[in-house]
Amino acid sequence: MKPQIHIRPVISILLFWSALALSCSERLSETRSSEDCPPIFPDYKEITVPVNIAPLNFRLEPGGKCKVLFSARDYQFTLSVSDYVNIPLTKWRRLLELAQGG
């Protein structure tokens, strides 16, 4: 007697894993690049920052997935965020060190 493979459970399992894989993939509905500063809170735009200050973390308003670019002279780093920008301390210190006096 030949072993029987029950197709219905196999197909159900494959469909489940396929649906799970597709639902977990992230797709951006709209992307755009902008030179304009988005609204942030607290509003740190056009301020002078002391070189020994802690990272100036902020919230984007309204929230949404984006990339934030920080740069000073030849150093730059990018953070991918949803709505709150939490700047890593080591990168922040390097940024301020290079921006000092400039």
Q: What is the general shape?
A: globular
Task: Tell me about the largest β-sheet.
Answer: 3 strands, antiparallel
What is the first-to-last residue Cα distance? Answer: 84 Å
Q: Which radius of gyration do the C-alpha atoms yield?
A: 23 Å
SSE string, helices as H and strands as E: HEEEEEH
Low-confidence stretches: 3-10
What topology, given as strand order, has the largest sheet? 1-2-5
Total helical elements: 2
Oligomeric form of this entry?
single chain
Task: Provide a compact summary of the structure.
This protein is α+β, with helices and mostly antiparallel strands and 102 residues long. It has helices spanning 7-24, 89-99, and strands at 40-41, 58-60, 66-72, 75-81, 84-85.
Question: How would you describe this structure to a colleague?
Answer:
This protein is α+β, with helices and mostly antiparallel strands and 102 residues long. Helices cover 28% and strands 21% of the residues. The strands form two sheets. It has a three-stranded antiparallel β-sheet, with no helix packed on it. The protein has a two-stranded antiparallel ribbon with strand order 3-4. A hairpin with a 2-residue loop joins strand 3 and strand 4.
Helix-strand blueprint:
Layout: H1 7-24, E1 40-41, E2 58-60, E3 66-72, E4 75-81, E5 84-85, H2 89-99
Antiparallel strand pairs: 1-2, 2-5, 3-4
Salient structural properties:
three-stranded antiparallel sheet, alpha+beta, 2 helices, two-stranded antiparallel sheet, 102 residues
